[in-house]
């Protein structure tokens, strides 16, 4: 693997500007915090039982993500904020999994906590999507007939979100556990954990890249190669953790050349150089 062209000296990191808000424990809570492993094991069951109080009608999904949209009056504006397609481009190549019917339409659920009645669930692990499929078939046998797990990339999801479709992510429980270990004092984590280090920001092909990882194991592997002096627990001190949802919100409201347009999300199991080569091909 070819080494990065150069290490960026720019110090401002977007993820560092979006810290997770620490949860203040209740004064009545004198018991020790729950075991993250136990929380991870019940994570999917908790979300499915809470969100899927009832299933709703499918909605067209996958085809719409690939359709180019003609520029309208807003597309001709001189706004310096990042456009939806620019944000989506940073998410290219990262797969998530959802349940669709035989017509490739999302199977939607309702969330009684928010009142949303057309909510698509997206899993970061295929086995969690398999569990969701089983749940759909159990709760709604007619709707579940012909239903299947379908992969979709995050850039497609983001463009569908721009079209007005609401989604809820089911993160990888292992990464929730990893995030809690990095954020000492937290017993819960809102959103999808993402990981970043200032040691991995590079300038390559005249462009600055600030990589964001979905798996702690991937960023640790990159840090081991980039910094031979960091080993074991020392690696964790170089890693910042935030949530995907918070990072995307910051990208949407910040201008070009602010640092937020340098972000590139690295699909699980891949390195920065491998992903750059693939998206640039």
From TrEMBL:
Residues 1-37 are annotated as: Disordered. Pfam families: Tic22. Belongs to the Tic22 family. One of its GO terms (biological process) is protein transport. This is Protein TIC 22, chloroplastic. InterPro entries: Tic22-like (IPR007378). It is found in: Plastid, Chloroplast intermembrane space. Keywords: Chloroplast, Membrane, Plastid, Protein transport, Transit peptide, Transport.
């Amino acid at each position: 693997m070819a080494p990065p062209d150069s290490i960026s000296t720019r110090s401002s990191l977007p993820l560092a500007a979006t810290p997770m808000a620490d949860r203040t424990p209740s004064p009545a809570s004198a018991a020790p915090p729950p075991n993250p492993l136990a929380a991870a094991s019940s994570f999917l069951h908790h979300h499915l039982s809470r969100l899927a109080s009832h299933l709703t009608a499918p909605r067209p999904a996958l085809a719409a993500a690939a359709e180019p949209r003609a520029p309208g009056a807003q597309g001709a504006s001189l706004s310096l904020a990042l456009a939806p397609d620019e944000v989506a481009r940073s998410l290219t190549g990262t797969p998530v999994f959802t349940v669709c019917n035989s017509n490739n339409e999302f199977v939607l659920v309702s969330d009684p906590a928010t009142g949303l009645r057309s909510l698509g669930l997206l899993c970061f692990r295929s086995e969690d999507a398999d569990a969701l499929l089983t749940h759909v078939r159990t709760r709604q046998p007619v709707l579940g007939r012909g239903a299947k797990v379908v992969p979709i990339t995050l850039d497609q999801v983001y463009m569908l979100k721009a079209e007005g479709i609401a989604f809820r992510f089911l993160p990888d429980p292992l990464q929730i556990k990893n995030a809690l270990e990095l954020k000492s004092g937290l017993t819960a984590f809102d959103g999808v954990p993402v990981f970043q280090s200032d040691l991995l920001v590079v300038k390559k092909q005249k462009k600055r890249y600030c990589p964001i990882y979905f798996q702690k194991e991937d960023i640790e592997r990159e840090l081991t190669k980039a910094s031979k002096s960091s080993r074991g627990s020392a690696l964790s001190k170089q890693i910042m953790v935030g949530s995907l949802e918070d990072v995307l919100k910051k990208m949407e409201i910040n201008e070009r050349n602010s640092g937020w347009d340098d972000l590139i999300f690295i699909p699980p199991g891949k390195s920065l150089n491998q992903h750059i080569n693939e998206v640039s091909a």
